[in-house]
Design goal:
The structure is a homodimer. With about 220 residues, chain A is an alpha/beta fold. The first copy, chain A, has two domains: about 140 residues, 2-Layer Sandwich (Nucleotidyltransferase, domain 5); about 70 residues, Nucleotidyltransferase, domain 5 (2-Layer Sandwich). Helices cover about 30% and strands about 30% of the residues of chain A. In chain A, strands 6, 7, 8, 9, 10 and 11 form a six-stranded mixed sheet that branches. In chain A, helix 1 runs parallel beside helix 2. The termini of chain A are far apart. Chains A and B meet through strand 3, helix 1 and helix 5 of A and strand 3, helix 1 and helix 5 of B. Strand 3 of chain A pairs antiparallel with strand 3 of chain B, so a sheet runs across the interface. Chains A, B: One of its GO terms (biological process) is tRNA threonylcarbamoyladenosine modification. Chains A, B: It comes from Kosmotoga olearia (strain ATCC BAA-1733 / DSM 21960 / TBF 19.5.1). Chains A, B: InterPro entries: ATPase_NBD, Gcp-like_dom, T6A_TsaB. Chains A, B: This is Peptidase M22 glycoprotease.
Chain lengths: ~220, ~220
Amino acid sequence: MKYLSIDSSSRRLLLLGVNEDKTMGVTLHNVGRHGTYLAPAVKDLLEYLQMSVKELDFIGCGIGPGSLTGLRVGISTVKGLAYPFDIPVISFCSLDLLAYNNYLSSAVVMRRGREGYYYWRKYRFEGYKPVPVEEPGFDSVDKLKSGILTKNEVLIFENEQEKEQFEGYDSLIALPPSPEIMKQIIVKAFEAGETIDVRELKPYYLQKSVAELNWERKHGKST
Amino acid sequence: MKYLSIDSSSRRLLLLGVNEDKTMGVTLHNVGRHGTYLAPAVKDLLEYLQMSVKELDFIGCGIGPGSLTGLRVGISTVKGLAYPFDIPVISFCSLDLLAYNNYLSSAVVMRRGREGYYYWRKYRFEGYKPVPVEEPGFDSVDKLKSGILTKNEVLIFENEQEKEQFEGYDSLIALPPSPEIMKQIIVKAFEAGETIDVRELKPYYLQKSVAELNWERKHGKST
């Protein structure tokens, strides 16, 4: 089987290519704008693995939640690759990449959105693997503390700063998400028959962009 | 700080480059012989990060235990890069890459050596991070079961097949080791002042090569 996968939902760009038993992963963290590096990195990866886009059985794509600009670049790139050859797509929640910490009983992955707000998703663990409990959410720190989070869940953050607002909760810093963790997620989804048509590919837009919020402030909510 | 790191102790080649806040990781699993891919991959990585070898503050190198041929390629490459500019080296035990599973109290990383033998290293966990308890060992399955392993340690294997010989033990498959886990290991060692001169760099040779064993069988043990 031959496939490619991209997650561009944070400042860490993850890229995976598989050609039968050969696997190549590339991680670019803070290296530059995703828009500058993603296309050349895909090209280099295909060359290392000696395969071409039209041979791909599917393309994986992280659809956030996370950086809106990053997601637009990643999803546009996947669309550009998949459309011409009508390659099926596997979309997955980018927070799942952070849930791979073994031996937890239940956990909540937390990713900072705009000031005072967090994306979150809850997981239980089966055979040391995380299984999402529900769709991801987007809520204020106050709301999270006053009802959504419970004290017997472990909070998983991406870095120390994000952890600070949740003192008193059992929490840890996620292992850095890697292309090979992405591989486990998309292969599981592919085996479960969860491919979609590339025309259906869209990001989780849980957070309105600052531009949208400003527009609503000035002009009232659109319907 | 600028640095590079390589682990070539298994069929998964790990490569890391850091240029100040920029990090790039490359994983090549089964892609081909390490001897063919390592040098060009290092060159590409340096280009992405816009840095040159002579600027490096140090070079990290996994010294096994693991594939003897793989280790020779990786260590030779690090020597080739470090010698001309006398760049300090951080060497680390490759089994540490497999120990990064959170929320364990104590664990033993297991890596298959020749038929019926395993490399192993024990870890305790501090603040969710593994700390090695002693130097790695190399022993037969029988000896491991009859004294070295205890039932309250979790065994960490690289794949399902290696696990089969240890039925009845609490065990799990390691998360795939990643360049960014290697980053955590070498940065910790660098901060602890554990650099060595490149002339001191050598692999863990816990296992005699098949060639050495055959020689001894024919000619008697050398002294």
